[in-house]
Amino acid sequence: FPHWNWKQGETVDVWAYYNQADSVELFLNERSLGVCTKDSVQLHACWRVPYEPGTLTAVSYYQGKEFLRRSVSTAGVPARLKLTPDRSILDAGGDDLVFVTVEVLDENGNLVPDADDLITFRLEGPGTIAAVDNGSPIRHESFRANFRKAFHGKCLVVIRSGNTAGAIRLTALSESFTQESTLDLEDRLVQ
Q: What fold does the segment set 11-73 form as a domain?
């Protein structure tokens, strides 16, 4: 599921794609909205759901037994940033890159899909910020900055290794809340 943040009462089309199950049941706040099965032509199950805040859960069944369960909950206001690197060790020499996904989360750890917070980055250690982006097709800020607005609650910062080995610390902060988020990386000499 992408997210479950809509306007109260708005009707939302919810699609579930599945190929290793016989049926899928959709729940909203633990209330069943029905079971759907697909045929050889239809590749998904679909429900038209009047939005209400809470948790939307899809449960797939294979031969009558639960096979897979996925849930998404309504997000609250932005409360913190989550920094997730594609790896934590860089090869020193100035040519290695680490891609860090930045997510704006609420107090329960849910992605805030409409967050557009301005996020500022600070780097300590031998690395440099190579680029920032957010995937928005209409924004035209420089990729070579130390800040970026979140787009649908996310942005990306790319860290380039330095020429020397050492610890690298990335700090991210937003004007929406006071808590900084940090990520520690390591720049190692290539053997």
A: Immunoglobulin-like (2.60.40)
